[in-house]
Amino acid sequence: MSEGYPGVGRVLVIIPTYNEADNVRIIVDRLRSAVPVADVLIADDHSPDGTGAIADELAAADPQVQVMHRAGKQGLGAAYLAGFAWAHERDYEAVVEMDADGSHAPEELPKLLDALASADVVLGSRWVRGGTVVNWPLHRLAISRVGNLYTRLALGMPYKDATGGYRAYRMTALDKLDISTVASQGYCFQVDLAWRAYRNGFRVAEVPITFAERERGASKMSSSIVREALWRVTVWGSQARVNGMRARLSGKRSGG
């Protein structure tokens, strides 16, 4: 059993993988060096490139590395939900989401965990002061910037980077979010959980990170992921406004 991180407790870093054979060994080695007390769960979606076999090698050599072999490519959100359940069953106090491709620097994880000591959720943010993005083409920068602006306007959340995937949660917070009803994927999965945390009044902190475009392998970003996020955020925002109007009307009736 691993030690706990000061002020946080036992930490599990969940790394979803699909065709990350070129990256998984590197990212796990960096993570184990950066935060030795953190345990690692590699959630592999039956990668045809042999990622799962490499993950098994890492687990055989290090008791703080575990592997979850999933039946097929089911998406980022489903992988994280399975990882959250795995962590809950083993009494972890905190979980971290981290990409396998190196875009999330393990060396910055202590910043997130330090912030989690006084928060329920910590978002690694590219768009707060001190955050930055390295080697992204202009169209990716535009999609992220516009997407986060639209999310803030549609949902009324104050967070600068609600779509980012480098974040940490206290398990006590996840237990209150009814994550069994989460069906969204990709960017939208991240917005969904941030939206639930905001509506529940959780303490959410944003800390600046440096996001670096992957050097090896192919990006999983697609137009369908962007469309899903746009559609779901629009629906959630509309529902929130309708519910707010109903609540105000109900209050006027009861007061009148």
Shape: globular
**Rg of Cα set:** 19 Å
Largest sheet descriptor? 7 strands, mixed
Order of helices and strands: EHEHEHEHEEHEHHEEH
Q: Average pLDDT, to the nearest integer? A: 90
- State the total count of DSSP E strands: 9
Helix content: 40-55%
Specify the structural class. Answer: alpha/beta
Biggest β-sheet: strands ordered side by side in the sheet: 3-2-1-4-7-5-8
Total of DSSP H or I helical runs spanning 4+ residues:
8
Describe the protein:
- The protein is built from 8 helices and 9 strands.
- Helix content is 44%, strand content 16%.
- The protein has a 7-stranded mixed β-sheet with strand order 3-2-1-4-7-5-8, sandwiched between helices.
- The model has no long low-confidence stretch (mean pLDDT 90).
- By secondary structure, it is an alpha/beta fold.
- Helix 5 (138-155) packs parallel to helix 8 and helix 7 (186-199) runs parallel beside helix 8 (223-255).
- The chain is globular and about 65 Å long.
